[in-house]
Structures are given as structure tokens and as C-alpha cells.
Amino acid sequence: MTSLVIIARFASRSEALIAQSLLRSEGVETLMPEFNVLMAELDPSMMEHGWRLMGRSDDVFKAQEILRDAQLGDRGLD
């Protein structure tokens, strides 16, 4: 049985959404447990761990490689 694990953490919701879209385009499904936080009253203690993307443990290495490659690609544009 495959379990859910944290694939990556982000400082902002927009970064997490972009990463989630990128992973989805590569066939890696993820969920963001904190997605609806903006609709609730924000308690700073809720965000101690940042914006998490969670996915299947079988997809961790593929997902992290995709995200790492995307970051390296951005650096080449300078």
C-alpha cells in the first residue's frame, strides 16, 4: 500500500500552486492540505510548516527531480 508523504514545502501558496501544476503536467498527482487556509481565519501557528505538497511515496523521487530540474532551468535565464 502506498502512503502519502511530503514531497516539498514552500514559503507561499503561489509557489506551491505553480509546483503542483508542474508536477501534474508530468503525471504526478499531489494535494495541498493547507489549500483552503485563506478562507479561514489565519492563525500564524497554522503555517509553521509552510505550504506542503503531499503525494504518493512511490512518486517522491520523480517529483523532487522534476522540481529540482525546474529550479535549475530558472537559473539559466539570468
Mind explaining what this structure looks like?
37% of the residues lie in helices and 19% in strands. With 78 residues, the chain is an alpha+beta fold. The chain has one domain (4-75): Alpha-Beta Plaits, CATH 3.30.70. The protein is globular.
SSE order and pairing:
Elements lengths: L3 E7 L2 H13 L4 E2 L19 E6 L3 H16 L3
Antiparallel strand pairs: 1-3, 2-3
Compact description:
The chain has a single domain, classed as Alpha-Beta Plaits, CATH 3.30.70.
SSE class? alpha+beta
Low-confidence stretches: none
CATH first level: Alpha Beta
Q: Which CATH architecture would you pick?
A: 2-Layer Sandwich
Q: Report the portion of residues in β strands.
A: 15-25%
Mean of the pLDDT scores?
A: 82
Domain count: the total is: 1
* Order of strands in the sheet with most strands: 1-3-2
Q: How much helicity do the residues have?
A: 25-40%
How is the biggest beta sheet arranged?
3 strands, antiparallel
Count of individual helical segments: 2
CATH topology name: Alpha-Beta Plaits
- In total, the number of strands is 3
Q: Cα distance, first to last residue?
A: 43 Å
Question: What is the 3D form?
Answer: globular
Please compute the radius of gyration using only Cα atoms: 13 Å
Order of helices and strands: EHEEH
